[in-house]
Each structure stands twice: as C-alpha cells, then as structure tokens.
Design goal:
- It is a single chain.
- By secondary structure, the protein is mostly helical.
- Helix content is about 75%, strand content about 5%.
- It has two domains: about 60 residues, Winged helix-like DNA-binding domain superfamily/Winged helix DNA-binding domain (Arc Repressor Mutant, subunit A), CATH 1.10.10.10; about 140 residues, Four Helix Bundle (Hemerythrin (Met), subunit A).
- Strands 1-3-2 form a three-stranded antiparallel sheet.
- Helix 2 packs across helix 3 and helix 4 packs across helix 6.
C-alpha cells in the first residue's frame, strides 16, 4: 500500500468512525480528491479497502456511500462479538502476565479519573486500551482479529453509548468485574464478565438506537 493511499484510507476511515461522514452519505471521488489532495485513482483504491472492511458500499455507476447498518445487523454483530470476546477472555485469563495485570489496573484507574471529570472521549480511549491488553494476552489471534473487525464496523455506535444516562457508571463497574476475574485468573469468571459486558452494550444500543444513529 502506497503512503498516499494509506493516508487517504486513514483519513476517510477516521471521518467515518467519528461521524463526520454519516451513514448512507455519498462519498464523491472528486470531492475527496480535492479535500485530501490526492488523485482520484488513490481515492478509488482507498474506498475499495474501506469496502473490504465493510465501512463503505460501492455500486457500479453509483459510487461509494458510507455503510449504514440496520439495528438487526448491529445486534447480530454484537451477538457474534459476545461469543468471541468470551472465548478470548477465557484463553487470556490463564495466560496473562503479572505485567499485563498491572497495566489493566492502571488503565482502569485512569478510566475512573476520566469518568469523575466527565472526560468521555478519554474514557473511551482507555476502554479500548483495556480490552487490547486482554487481546494481547490471548493466544487465539484469529478470534481477536474477527472481534477487531466487528469493533471497527460498529465503533461509531459504541462510542456514543457512554453518553446514555447511567451507562458510564455501569460500564466502569463491568470493567472492574472483568479485572477482578483476571486478577485471580479465573477463566469462567473472566468469560462470563466479558460476555455480560458485551450483552449490556447490545442492550444499550437496542434501547437507545434512535439516539445513537
């Protein structure tokens, strides 16, 4: 992948994930070429890569649009993620090092501080980092890769869930339980705690879908 194409790909992807480019929005190659200062061929290649990640839909003679997921599709993705995340947590709990546990403890403490000061963007970044520590501890790299793909596709929805009243406190408690399970390296507890956490994300999205889209 060329540097120019990589930059265009990352630029468009970030705009999709942060909500600047809305679901179902047309992505005009000429406009993007001028905006990013890249050739139309570079933009076309970047859009094709985003299509492979299911973030963009491309139709012949109609061009590219930002992928719009239905509520049913979101629920199905999260059901898959719940099973995979449980498997990842189970395999990570018995493999995690003391150093990784200390890392998780530090991230959770940062999350507490961000929550207390209502720094929700920073909280979400720490949330991602917390789960990444678990992914790194799991030997099942295939399951981790699948989960990362799903998380990328649904990130714009999940980032907004922290703004739902009461969800931030619930989220922190769920992460505390996940950490507790890992601290004693209890595979079943870790699996159950992570699956419950993903199930609560799914419930929050279902109950607040009109607010989140």
């Amino acid at each position: 992948m060329s540097t120019q194409m990589e930059n265009a790909y990352r630029y468009i992807k970030q705009k999709i994930l942060n909500g600047t480019y809305k679901p179902s929005q047309k992505l005009n190659e000429s406009d993007l070429s001028a905006e990013i200062n890249a050739s139309r061929n570079t933009i076309k290649k970047a859009l094709l890569k985003l299509q492979q990640e299911n973030l963009v839909s491309i139709e012949t003679n109609k061009g590219a649009t930002v992928k719009d997921f239905t509520l049913d599709e979101i629920v199905h993705y999260l059901e898959i993620r719940e099973v995979l995340e449980g498997l990842i947590a189970k395999t990570a709990a018995s493999n995690i090092s003391d150093g990784k546990l200390v890392q998780m403890e530090g991230i959770l403490e940062e999350m507490r501080g961000h929550l207390n000061h209502q720094r929700f963007d920073d909280y979400s970044k720490c949330n991602l980092a917390f789960h990444n520590v678990i992914y790194e501890a799991s030997p099942n790299v295939q399951a981790v890769s699948m989960v990362q793909t799903i998380k990328t596709q649904l990130r714009r929805f999940q980032l907004k869930t922290i703004l739902v009243p009461g969800r931030n406190e619930e989220s922190f408690k769920e992460h505390q339980k996940i950490l507790n399970a890992f601290q004693v390296r209890d595979e079943k507890w870790a699996e159950d705690a992570v699956k419950y956490h993903i199930a609560q994300i799914r419930r929050t999205i279902v109950e607040n879908y009109s607010f989140l889209v």
